[in-house]
Amino acid sequence: MGIISRAFQGRPRDHDEKLPPGQYLVHDFPVLSAGPTPRVPLDRWEFAIDTPEGEVHRWSWEEFQALPQETPTVDLHCVTKWSKFGTEWKGVSLDVLMEDVESAAEYALAYSYGGYTTNLPLEDLLDGKAWIVHEFDGEELAPAHGGPARLLVPHLYLWKSAKWVKGIRLLNDDWPGFWETAGYHNYGDPWREQRYQGD
Amino acid sequence: MDQLDYQDGNALAGPLSEIFTLDVTTAHGTCAGCGRRGVLAELRVYGPEPGLVARCPGCEEVVLTLVRGPKDAWLDLRGSVSLRIPIAE
């Protein structure tokens, strides 16, 4: 037990419990960038899911907007150690997008306008755990934060929530993405502090 | 005009000096994407977090990334065909 008790730290206990190890709380929304910000006109925007069996499912912006929408409120955890609580989004659950997709694939690779990629097990995209979101805090999603639409997978570090998402490729074998091949952890669970390869 | 969201390749000098004993920002590289040749100091460097990403000023493809963890550094030269590094005689 430390000399300084929780009471003297001035932080509510529930915040401590919501903060994964090694993280600190921010109230702004930092922008991290690995390249130029893509500007994608909505009339040319498309989202696709393809499978190793050869199926391709595509949605135009209008078709995507016509799908059932959800408004998840989630905590975000960035591998650079900031966390942001209670962020409000609007978008389409991956469960809806995957409804008519038939595949035996177990892995997924999200890819983006601009060339970014990130990989995760398919099960991490299902059962209410992931969305393609297009609004943040009641406003259309700004390009700096991944607009027109980004993947949102809040139970993993934020680099898995690919900005400017263009599609998801389902795969029989795991295919590490941009940061996963550059030193970051293949899975990225903030509660197990899986930041770098070998963590 | 938008403010530039990257630095030039001289921003690599400090971080890469942890790995190389020579200043490699003066090395000549060839981009695997478009074949453009130039010194690393001409690259466009995004970051530093979650890692440095140096892109070709010609085609914007990634030439190298550098991720610095607490115990290891990962240098990925995925978009570089070769580096010609000047060595003092």
Automatic annotation (TrEMBL), chain A:
InterPro entries: OxRdtase_Mopterin-bd_dom, OxRdtase_Mopterin-bd_sf. Transmembrane segments: none annotated. It comes from the Bacteria. Residues 35-179 form the Oxidoreductase molybdopterin-binding domain. PANTHER family: OXIDOREDUCTASE MOLYBDOPTERIN-BINDING DOMAIN-CONTAINING PROTEIN (PTHR43032:SF4), PROTEIN-METHIONINE-SULFOXIDE REDUCTASE (PTHR43032). This is Molybdopterin-dependent oxidoreductase. The lineage of its organism: Bacteria, Bacillati, Actinomycetota, Actinomycetes, Streptosporangiales.
UniProtKB/TrEMBL annotation, chain B:
InterPro entries: DUF6510. Pfam families: DUF6510. It comes from the Bacteria. This is Hydrogenase maturation nickel metallochaperone HypA.
